[in-house]
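Ticket opened by: R.M.
Priority: normal
Category: complex prediction / small molecule

The reporter submitted a protein together with uridine-5'-diphosphate-xylopyranose and asked that the result be attached to this ticket for the collaborator who will pick it up next week. Submitted input follows.
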Amino acid sequence: MKLSVIGCGYLGAVHAASMVELGHEVVGIDVDAAKISMLSEGRPPFFEPGLPEILKSAIASGRLRFSTDIADAKGATVHFIGVGTPQRKGEYAADLSYVNSAVDALIPYLSDGDLVVGKSTVPVGTAEVLAGRISASSGADLAWNPEFLREGYAVKDTIEPDRLVYGVPRGARGDRVTSILNAVYASAIANETPLVVTDYATAELVKVSANAFLATKISFINAMAEIADASGADVTQLADAIGFDARIGRRFLNAGVGFGGGCLPKDIRAFTARAEELGRGDSVAFLKEVDAINLRQRDRVVDMVVDALDGNVFQKRIAVLGLAFKPNSDDVRDSPALDVAIRLHGLGARVVATDPEAIANSQRLHPQLTFAETASEALKDADVVVVVTEWGAFRELVPSEVSKLTAGRVVIDGRNCLDATSWRDAGWTYRGMGRP
Ligand code: UDX
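Result attached by the on-call engineer:
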């Protein structure tokens, strides 16, 4: 099938290349000329494992091209909208301007029978409005097909999704839309991937409620970590024990410096704002608490460093290991790790931060920070070591080797990802989040 993908960020670029992998012909469109020129050369403008390989093979096959001209969407029959919906400046609500302008720019190039497929995360009610705009000026239909990909696993999550959700128009048009999407996702359908075909509002809400649930799960365990700290319990064992209950499950119960990234933080805020617009702010008022618990973890890590230095942070050398919001990503949007580095810098510490992939993005946002290309360089003469992103390279550090580099012997494990015993055995003071 001939597809267009409007918006070539983390979502769109992966979607475009993955759709070629599934046998389709794709044009990826974005207003950012620098991004399009990199993608055209087979170079993703961000770090995502597996993406460079499929991007290059897709381009070589002649079935993937990129353009800054929305007119190039003409001729495709299915048009995916994968532009960003960031938090509005100074507000909790989502900024829909990119979605609106993508749809408006696309409308003149739509042919009768085309299908526009929204993948961006939007406030419930958005698709209904867009469907009205599309049908008023074209013979095309709209589907809402939320994307659940995780950064770091984006290619696999796109090619082999764990479920498909289609929000479709009512009646016969809905059946037509469903059969087009089934053809797009033929391989996932053949693999009996669970499929939910529903209305627009449900499809939109599935996405925001999934992210709200995940955020709640993380803040729940971080709240338990606070209680564990106050009572001498161990939150990692607690998570294992409650996680054995199949109704609870162990995944997303890792206590630490909390969630960040381009989705969870802004999505729970946009959900709160939308619920308030709908007169149901009280229904999701708990998400404010989820947000507050999450942000508090950054304070906790900073306080642990301050405590470790008996309150004298000024000019102390601190090695911050991690900047990305999670491993296998170079994304520093709303990253707890970068935030901790900045806060410590703000207290007058001599912070040296490192990350296997996220230095360039961090430097762009915070050029005032000092960065080291390697962990060894960051660790040199450090008074305190803080781990805030659980990259394999940091988990595998050998405490006795680290001792040869650092001045101090205190490690703050902001991701509960180190082996406390081996660090203590090597003479270190180890402090985790909610661990005795
Ligand atoms: C998330 C959703 O998982 C995905 O389905 C959706 O499409 C987009 O948002 P992503 O932002 O890539 O994906 O990251 P995710 O793996 O969900 O992690 C989010 C944050 O939570 C990270 O900062 C991570 O470090 C943190 N986290 C995760 C925890 O603190 N503890 C955990 O147990 C799990």
